[in-house]
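Hello again, I could really use a second opinion on something today. I've been staring at a protein lately and its backbone has me curious. Can you walk me through what the tokens say about the fold? Take your time with it, there's no hurry, and the full record follows here:
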Amino acid sequence: MDMTELVLQDVQFVVDVKGNKKAAQIALPVWEALLTYLKAHEEEATAELLAMPGLVEAIERSKQRLQSGQFTRYEDIRRDV
């Protein structure tokens, strides 16, 4: 059983008066297992991302553009799509 199946097996939803899901509740042992799983895979995912050619440089360029005011607002991108 993978982590997704483990979590979904024991999840309970909190709903509003219209029946819309507003929150999810899981047992504490499942939450702790989920945190452990995410922590273990976070390091692997970070290593994979950092190994991508040019990614770190692209992030640095983006930071510099943002700091210098050279950025595009989300609203402008959405309007042009």
